[in-house]
Every structure is written in structure tokens, then in C-alpha cells.
Amino acid sequence: MANLQTTIQTSTPPLRDHRSLIEAASRYYSEAVRLNDVQLLEKASQLAYQAWQADDRYLPGINLLARIAMHRGQYQNAKYWVDNGLSIKPDSPGLLYSAGHIALSTGQLDDAEEFFTASSRISQVATKSPMYLAHIKLLKGAYVDAFQIYRELIKTQANDAQVRSKLFEATDQIVADFYSVELEQELLRWFEFEDVDHSQLRSLTTSMLQHKMRLTEQGCPLDPEQIANDPLLLAGLQHFYFTDPLMEKLLTTLRRSLLLSSSRELAIPGGFLDLVTGLAAQCELNESVWFIDPQETTLLSQLNDLAARILSLGDVNASDISAIVLLTMMYQPLRHAPFFDALVAHDILWPTHMAELMDKCLQEPLTIRAHASCVRTINLSGDPISDQVRAQYEVHPYPRWTSLGYHQPADYLDTLASLFPGAQLPERHEPINLLVAGCGTGRQAVRLSRYFHGLSVTALDLSKTSLGYAAMQAERYGCDIDFVHGDLLEAAQLNTQYDVIECSGVLHHMDHPEDGLQALTEQLASGGLMKIALYSRQARTLIRELRETLGEDLPTSESDIRLVRETLIQQGSEQWHAILQSPDFYSLSACRDLLFHTKEHTYDLQEVRRLIDNAGLEWVGMVAPQGAYKLAADVLKLKPQHLTLNDWHTLEQVNPALFAGMYQFYVRKP
After folding, report:
1. pTM for the full model?
2. Which residues pair with 664 in a beta bridge?
3. How many helices, marked H, and strands, marked E, lie in the chain?
4. 384-534: same fold as 2-171?
5. Residue 555 near residue 564, CB atoms below 8 Å
């Protein structure tokens, strides 16, 4: 740090006038934000204040003082400086932009929207006001407005990771009312973006395809070759799993036809190669969740046997086996193929159209195994339910995520302070020790490590396969995470007091959730925070009905899961509409987790209150689910950060699906 300060000091001429003071202060501020360094921030503050003393009407200096105060969480002080500047120049886009951020940080969404709108009207390029205006639209549920703003921004700011991420977040909420050639071309360009979550393009892509293909319950009037070469369909097949019954019906019909016709000659017609490759990629993504009829099962078995025999003969070329392998991959992830190990042993140069897919499908399982073998282990509890849950996730690790998406780098405690103004937070120090208890395949652990500075992340899970997947992704994103194999009932063996524990979607899968919560509470430092996510009984009413209907016959095998899924689809969307609307229904591991989990408890908010009270924890606040801002304003005339547990209970009665994504809340250990 001394080197940085020396460099700035020696490269800056004697600081006498306000402009040079602000220039130096801005450099210190930028480095302070990048490094999260309080000393550099203080130096920036001192220089900026000296500049203000030299010229109290210099707007860049006033704005910098406001930004520094904002970064420190001193929002009243920041507002003082912004008001001061706006009294001098009411139409300053920079000061209006800062005013918008102050309002956003304090939950004043209407005021934030007004400031960002005013700044944008003055200049579309002077600040990032248009992007944050769209962000406010997202928070307020004005998804179409947000989408249109981001859609324009991406045309000139395609390299901005934040703009790409927010565009995708908005697109996730958009359904097309008609087919548009222009929008299809934009979507195809967006599929080429890297480090984004392409599954957020799924809703718009699916609805566009339905209009383009005139897809209905009665089928699709287009010729199969037209469908097979549709660029938007092929892009979707490669990047996400489809979550629509009509698309599933179309794709399974095409798959069956291709299997029957191609297996006779053991060759795939050239016009359908890309579609078969896309269907193989789709199977990899959805883990073969689609129904397989007896004839298809027989043909698949025969193709598997044939592939094994060919591989046993010695030297094998791609021309000998590529068609057979691709046809089987439409029905089974390659890692599950009985000939997988034999295929790995052959160094085959695959044709261009399938080379990337084959490389991923052959290498990823080996990488996961290697990482899983290196994870350290603490004792397992021996709890029978824990053993059953572990067995489920060893076979079906969930979720098999493929993209982390983007999050603006931030300070964890500052983020919580903005979510819950006035809450008592852990003392600030570095590193903040954070435990993800029940990390699964690691998406949350990797997001925390990658996008929140100053964290030391430990991630604990029952399943070694899940941990192998998590460690693979952590390596991909350059994250240093301590992955541990073990039961959270044995968390004391970690021998660490954590400042923060995150435990999402885990306790409700234990035999006695209160025991799990107690075990974690004992590892939480005094004054520490815990994030918990639990199933809402009201949001899972239909799922509970299905589980009660199945009784002791909850499916566990993949073939049984596929059969029950197909039955639900055939019974129609009226009876099981909410289930068929869930994206998790369309991936095998996710479907099992959603509907057929070995063990689950559900809660109402009064039971949540008793659970945390019995653990000796204090309520901090609920993470507002999608749609909560508008609902809270309409029903209670309040903002989400001001709601009590009773208020949230009231909102859930108005909208029973409000917590379909679980109750997610923070508690504090006194």
C-alpha cells in the first residue's frame, strides 16, 4: 500500500489549486474502492475537502465528497453534499446520478427513479443513469420498460458486464406476444455473450419459437427440416434446457423420429446433424428428464451394446462410432453411458459439429471425480435421514449450473446494511469468516467468493459428487474456497467461529431441522449473522398434495421420475399448472429436488418465528422476493425493509405464491 501512495504522491505536482486536489482525490478514491482500503478512502476525503475549501462551488469536488460519504454508508452526509451541489446547478447529471444512488441505497425507489430519469434526460452518456433507471424499473416490477432500456443500452455497451447481466435479468421476465425477425437477431447475438446466464433468455426464446413455428397443442405445421435448421432453436438447445410442455412434446417427437430413422442405417441425415447434436446437448443439460417409451428403450440398449462392441475392437475412428454415440446421447448423458469409460480410453478426433460437446461431456465427469477425491472430510453424523439425503445428491447433484452470471463487486456488510437499514451487523474486519452450510454444487459459495471482497469462504456439504462439481466451478472462476465433506450436525468439527453462516434450502431436508439450526448457531460468533431459507407451506400447497397422493411411492429411479412427470403432463396443465410452470420440473435432478425429495418440512411464518426464538436468535429481516416492492406498497403502504414478520404474513395471504422461492431471511446471534 505504501508503494501505491508513494506513486501517487511523487507523480502529482504540488497540490495548490482545487482541480489538482480533486484529481489526486479521485485517484485515491478509485483505488480505495477497488481495494476496499479505508486509509486510502480517508486520504481521498481529506483532499476532496481541501479542494472544497479552496473552491466551494466546484461541482466535481462536491460530487466526489458525496460519493465518498455514500461509500462509507453515511447517507445523510452524502445527501448534504448533493443538495449543496444541486443548489448551485440543478441540472447537473453527475449530481442527479449521485442523488439517485443515495435514494436507491436507502430504499427510496420513487425518488431514485425521479433522479435517474432527470439525469438521463440531460445526458444519456455522462453517467450510468439509464442503466440504473432500468434497474429501478426491474425492482418495481416494470419488466417491459426495463427490458426496452437495456435492449437499447446493449447496442452500444455490449462489453459492459453489468449491462449484459441486467439485460439478461430483465429478459428473464419477458414473454413475446408475436414473432419478430429483429428481436430474433438480437437474441442470437446475445447467445454469443460469455460470462452470462443464458438460461435467462429461455422465456423469450421459447415464446418467440412458439410464434415462429405456430406451435400449439395440436402440433407444429412446419416441415421437420425447417425445424431442424432453425438457428434460434439450435442456440436454445445448446445453452439451456427448455421448460415448456409444448416444446417438450415437439422435441421428444422429433427425437423419436430421428432415432427410429437413423438407427436403421446407423447414420444421421446431413440436414439433421445439428439438430441431433442439439438434442444431445439438451439431454446433457436436462439430465434425460424426458419420457422414454419401451421401443426407444430397446433401441437405446441395442445402440449402447453396439458402441461397447466397437470400442472393444481396438483402434476406433470417429466415422465408426460418432453417429451411434450421438443417437444415444439424445437419451442419456454421456457420463451415464455403459461405454463411457471405454470411450474415454480412446483418443478420438471428433467431427467439428460435435467436437465441443464431446470434449465437455468426456472431460467434465473426470474433472469432478478428481476434485471430489481431494476434498477434506469431517465425520459424518450417521443420521439415517442425512444418509438418505446424501445418497440422493450423490446420484443427482443439484443444481448442475453452467453459468455464474455477473454481480457488481461489493462489500458484503455494506450490502446487508442497504438491505436492512439500522440492523446490527458483525464488527468489520478482514477476512470475514463465512460458512455456506449445505453448499450443494457451489453456486452461492462461488458467487460470494468471486463478487464480495474480504470474505474467507468455507463450503460444507454431505455429497462428495456435489462438492466435486462445486470445486470444478470454483477453479473455473478462480475462487479460493475451502470445500469440506461432512454433515452440518457435526459442524463443531470445523473448529471455527463464523461471522456469517448462509444455510439456504437445507434445514427443511433434515429429520430435525431444529437440531441442525442449533449446531450452526453454536458455530456462529456472538454478533454474527445467519441467512436461512426455508420452504413456505402455502407456496408448496400443490406439491404437498402431489406428495400425499403418491404416499410411500415417491419415485427415486430415473425411469420412475420420468414416468410420473409424463403422467402429470398428460393429465394437463389445469390440475398441475403451478408445477408445470416451475423451471425445476424440466431437469431430472431439479425435478427430484422439487417434488420427490427424500425428506422435507414446510413452514408458515409463525413456525419460523418459533424456530429462531428457540435457537436464541434475533430476527433481522426478510430478503424481499420478486414482486414484494409493489405488493408491499399496494397493500401496506410500506417498503419491504420496514416490514415485520406479521406484515410478511399478511402479504403472503394476499399472494400465496409470494415465497415460491422460499422464505429467505437473516437472523442474528446476540
Report:
1. 0.90
2. 533
3. 32, 10
4. no
5. yes
For the residues of 558-594, what is the DSSP string, one character each? HHHHHHHHHHHHHH-HHHHHHHHT-GGGGSHHHHHHH
Q: Which CATH superfamily is domain 384-534 in?
A: Vaccinia Virus protein VP39 (3.40.50.150)
CA distance 305 to 177: 47
Structural domain boundaries of the chain? 2-171, 186-354, 384-534, 541-595
Written as one string, the DSSP assignment of 151-200 is: HHHHHH-TT-HHHHHHHHHHHTT---SS--HHHHHHHHHHTT-SSS-GGG
Element (H, E) at 104: helix 93-105
The contacts found for 122-127 with CB under 8 angstroms, 24 or more apart, are 122/91, 122/93, 122/96, 123/93, 126/93, 126/94, 126/97, 127/93, 127/94, 127/97
Asked whether the predicted pLDDT for residue 381 surpasses 90, the reply is: no
Task: Render pLDDT for 495-508 as a digit per residue (tens, 0 to 9).
Answer: 999 999 999 999 99
* 511 three-class SS: coil
Q: What residues contact residue 472 under an 8 Å CB cut-off, 6+ apart?
A: 364, 367, 368, 371
Report strand pairing: 482-485 vs 452-453: unpaired
143 CB-near residues (< 8 Å, 6+ apart): 137, 170, 173, 174
User: Which pLDDT band, with edges at 50, 70 and 90, does 3 fall under?
Assistant: very low
For residue 15, the model assigns a pLDDT of 46
Over residues 195-223, the pLDDT tens digits come to 899 999 999 999 999 999 999 988 888 99
The pLDDT tens digits of the residues spanning 134-160 come to 999 998 889 999 999 999 999 999 999
Rounded to a whole number, what is the largest CA-CA distance in the chain? Answer: 86
Average pLDDT over residues 359-377: 96
Report which DSSP code applies to 536: B
Confidence (pLDDT) at 14: 46
DSSP structure class, residue 219: B
The whole-angstrom separation of Cα 569 and Cα 179 is 26
Closest Cα partner for 419 from 531, 314, 528?
531
Q: Tell me the DSSP string of 396-434.
A: S-S-----------EEHHHHHHHHSTT---PPP-SSEEE
Q: Specify the DSSP class assigned to residue 291.
A: -
Query: Which CATH topology does 2-171 take?
Result: 1.25.40
Closest CA to 531 of 511, 513, 505, 509: 505
Q: Which helix (H) or strand (E) holds 500?
A: strand 498-504
Amino acid, res. 622: M
pLDDT of residue 573: 66
Q: Which residue has the cell 454481480?
A: 407
> What whole-number distance in Å separates Cα of residue 367 and Cα of residue 471?
9
Query: Is it true that the peptide bond before 399 is cis, omega within 30 degrees of 0?
Result: yes
CA distances from 589 to 36, 286, 335, 354 (A): 39, 8, 15, 25
* Cβ contact 437:506 at 8 Å: yes
Q: Is 598 a residue whose pLDDT tops 60?
A: yes
